[in-house]
Amino acid sequence: MSTARKVLLTVGGLVVALILAAAAAVYVYGPTATAMYTGTARFFGTDTPKRYTSTVLDLAGQGLYADTPEFAEASTAAREAAENAETLDDIRPALDKAVQAAGGKHSKLFAPATGDDDEVDDEIAETKTAGVAVSGGVAVATVPGVDRHADIQAYADALSSGLIQARDDGACGAIVDLRGNGGGDMGPMLAGLSPLLPDGEVLEFVTASSSMPVNVSGNAVNGGGSALETAGGKWDAPTAVLVDEYTASSGEATMLSFRGLERSRSFGEPTAGYASANMVYDFPDGSSMMLTIAKDRARTGETFAEDPIRPDTEGGEADALAWLAEEHDCR
To answer: Which residues does 71 contact at the CB level (< 8 Å), separation at least 6?
Structure first.
């Protein structure tokens, strides 16, 4: 055999080996990699119970408590259960325990029948609409939870345009009503309220090794939920924030975005205690995973995760109106 032929055969063999290695890597790591980069796991083949389990556990490794013995034990139990599982439904209960061990009470694996990251109470979502109403000289912004599949730009625009109209009509202060806001996409909430927020970092998400700031610039928001921009500019208005026991997740994060501002004060009841940042991953079978990866830190330096956030003042809308009137001569 000639030297040239030997070289060609060697090169050809190396190419085939590289192709096979790449295919194997895509098969093994592809679902996790695609989920992390796109939000949806792609299996490039059958999502068997074992592959599904490996992908869920790999992703859960980003969780806030993934370095705990509880997650290690739950992961081992899930992998053992996957050995004899015939369907994905067989393995889901064990995986849900592992996901909750990795991320805490704000984390969950949703089955296809109910598979959605929507933290918003359906009844609240149906009865409350984002918008602004003016009573006397006070603009009241109703800020309900919002699902990531909703028209988030319209939601944000309804809030920001209402606030700017109130400003232009001579309103003297604002109330941000987060009562009943069970969470969802924080981006449209902050974009809608951006007229009331100063530019810069409004809060940050903190992991064990890093922090991720949420920033407002003009009427644009990035770093928290969907990056969005509204219009109209700013309104330097004294702002009361209303919360209750049903204010949760991104509703709590929105509350914290006002915490520590000189002309803002919160009123109501302690919140639900889900002040943390989540990632949501979708799977081909229609299931999804919501995983807590970070705690919320306010500009005051306070850090929150699974404990209720106490408002500055207990009370309700009447107390907020009294504060605006007495402290800021706004009525």
So the answer is: 60, 63, 65, 98, 101, 102
